[in-house]
Task: inverse folding
């Protein structure tokens, strides 16, 4: 029996989870509301909020799991990538906690954790190797080929903005608040996705670019607003549905191509943007068309959380891959 306490603090969510034998006993997330008024994450405020949250969040995770700290076999933590001030809080806490209970540390890469969340035991089928995972978050957009848990090849990546960043910027242009992804998703359900079209760039291979889509969205609205200052207000739902369809279509077209080229029959999605309802339904549709299998994470494991760090730490712990207490965080 393996019991892991996992800590995640790479961006603006302070999270702690307890996993026992790949099952989640608790997964506590304190999201930081302080950034909403600034329209994006303010690093200095994020690290301060982590500092306030970390002790109560870990305490709650242990209590919800119904375990004492002496039952923890190892402490897993996100070492990077992320914001330095944010990472430092989780890394320092994990080191102190592990030292205090005399148990090993396991370092986890945040991106691997997102992908490996598919191996949390929920009593549901899990992907079999090899499979392709589209990792889409506020900071990353990658097509990954997994041949084993830690044998991961990056097939494609964004050359500029991440998909979540593009969605958040589109939302900001329409004054929908931050983070805009969930708002666009909700409003898009009432809109016509074919109302407007936005060009997607031709990028070689499986790479992406999102800065052009964002700019064409911005210029389109600037021109329309000259004719009608209420244009956004009148067409909000259609605009959300159209930009969402553009971004999701662009993402999945390359994933489908990558699967065909690599003869892979299983597709997964991970990261904050994998909570998007159109991305989820379109992935299902593509997989049904080809008789492939789709793996879609539950909402609680899409955005940043410590349960995904816990599963990655469990897999490493089982191979005796412990971290040295002197390891510093890394931002990239
Ligand atoms: O993985 P995550 O929580 O943090 C990073 O590591 O970046 O991802 C956050 C991103 C944000 O850009 C947010 O707008 C987006 O995920 N997001 C969504 C949805 N829920 C969160 N984007 C589209 N539709 C959603 N339902
Ligand atoms: Zn993330």
Result:
């Amino acid at each position: 029996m393996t019991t892991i306490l996992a800590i995640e603090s790479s961006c603006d969510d302070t999270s702690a989870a307890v996993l026992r034998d790949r099952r989640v006993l608790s997964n506590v997330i304190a999201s930081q509301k302080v950034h909403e008024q600034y329209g994006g994450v303010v690093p200095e405020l994020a690290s301060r909020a982590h500092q306030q949250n970390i002790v109560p969040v870990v305490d709650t995770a242990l209590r919800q799991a119904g375990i004492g700290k002496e039952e923890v076999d190892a402490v897993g933590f996100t070492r990077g990538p992320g914001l330095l001030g944010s990472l430092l809080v989780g890394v320092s806490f994990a080191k102190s906690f592990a030292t205090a209970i005399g148990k090993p540390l396991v370092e986890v890469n945040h991106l691997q954790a997102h992908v490996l969340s598919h191996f949390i035991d929920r009593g549901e089928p899990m992907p079999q190797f090899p499979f392709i995972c589209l990792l889409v978050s506020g900071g990353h957009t990658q097509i990954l080929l997994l041949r084993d848990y830690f044998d991961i090849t990056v097939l494609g990546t964004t050359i500029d903005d991440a998909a979540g960043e593009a969605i958040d910027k589109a939302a900001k242009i329409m004054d929908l608040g931050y983070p805009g992804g969930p708002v666009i998703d909700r409003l898009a359900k009432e809109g016509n996705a074919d109302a407007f079209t936005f060009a997607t760039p031709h990028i070689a291979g499986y790479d992406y670019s999102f800065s052009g889509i964002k700019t064409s969205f911005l210029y389109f609205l600037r021109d329309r607003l000259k004719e009608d200052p209420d244009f956004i207000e009148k067409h909000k739902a259609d605009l959300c549905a159209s930009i969402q369809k553009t971004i999701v279509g662009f993402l999945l077209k390359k994933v489908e191509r990558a699967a065909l080229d690599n003869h892979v029959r299983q597709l997964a999605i991970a990261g904050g943007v994998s909570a998007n309802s159109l991305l989820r339904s379109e992935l299902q549709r593509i997989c049904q068309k080809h008789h492939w299998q789709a793996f879609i994470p539950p909402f609680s494991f899409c955005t940043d959380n410590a349960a995904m760090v816990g599963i990655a730490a469990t897999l490493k712990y089982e191979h005796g891959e412990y971290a040295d207490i002197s390891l510093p965080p890394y931002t990239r």
Observations:
- The CA atoms of residues 302 and 309 lie 12 Å apart.
